[in-house]
Design goal:
42% of the residues lie in helices and 19% in strands. By secondary structure, it is α+β, with helices and mostly antiparallel strands. A hairpin with a 2-residue loop joins strand 3 and strand 4.
């Protein structure tokens, strides 16, 4: 009788959760149905198919075209900005797994937020995402997910580009200041005073370049940090203070509105 000599599977991916959506819809820059600031506890792969859009990720603006991929890490504030009314077609793949998982090897070195690929690779990546979306069973889904990540990992350093959009110097300084000091800024008027500009001017700049108000942008930074602290096991009251909210009731209210659950429930779920 033949006894096979078994080998271990090459990698142990551990527990991996993922979610994929495909969207093809018409939007305008002032569309009220859009969520201006995106915050996720997992990794996000945004894959563009069409649409006159660009992305703000961690205070850097990236233009995107068909097949380009924007990758954001957990709790990165990222905003899809519409240059004009357009049909926006894209995939969004979210992945949540242990930080030591080989699934996340692409983050270990030479990580950037934007990746561009050859036309041949773009076609393959889109085919694998569509295969993942239409898969009928778990094995097929897993195969398509691993194939997508494997191709992305093997091609990302060969084809990635660091093309960025330059903002007016004064706007960039304000964004960088908020990024560094959001925990200590309790009111947008503090930004006005720091840079000697009126509220009307600051609001006009933010609406023009980021398509949301200074308050919404500042709040997104605070909420992203709060989500991170809750995941690390800090109690709600401490998180409220450390992330720069002066009113705990208000913090609970805006957190629930953004994430669909209270900070306490999020804390219990992740600890």
């Amino acid at each position: 009788m033949y006894n096979p000599s078994f080998e271990n599977f090459p990698i142990d991916t551990g527990k991996v959760r993922f979610h994929l959506v495909y969207e093809n819809s018409f939007h305008t820059p002032d569309d009220p149905s859009l969520d201006p600031s995106h915050l996720h506890s997992g990794y996000e792969f945004y894959v563009n198919i069409s649409g006159d859009v660009y992305f703000l990720v961690n205070n850097t603006f990236y233009p995107v075209k068909k097949g380009d991929i924007i990758v954001t890490k957990p709790n990165d504030v990222h905003i899809c900005i519409y240059n004009s009314p357009c049909i926006h077609e894209h995939y969004c793949l979210w992945i949540d797994c242990d930080e030591k998982s080989p699934i996340l090897d692409f983050t270990r070195e030479n990580f950037t937020n934007k990746y561009s690929f050859s036309e041949k690779t773009k076609v393959k990546l889109l085919e694998q995402l569509e295969g993942l979306r239409t898969s009928k069973n778990k094995i097929e889904k897993s195969a398509n997910l691993l194939a997508f990540l494997s191709l992305f990992l093997s091609e990302k350093n060969l084809n990635s580009q660091s093309e960025e959009i330059s903002l007016p110097t004064e706007i960039q300084k304000i964004l960088d200041y908020i990024d560094t000091n959001f925990m200590h800024i309790h009111n947008v008027s503090e930004i006005n005073n720091k840079f000697f500009i009126s509220s009307a001017t600051l609001n006009r700049w933010f609406k023009k370049y980021i398509q949301l108000s200074p308050r919404e942008f500042l709040e997104a930074k605070k909420l992203a940090y709060a989500q991170k602290l809750l995941s690390e096991g800090l109690p709600v009251n401490s998180v409220c203070i450390k992330s720069g909210f002066s009113d705990c009731s208000y913090f609970i209210s805006v957190f629930k509105k953004k994430f669909g659950e209270t900070p306490h429930k999020y804390y219990k779920k992740n600890n």
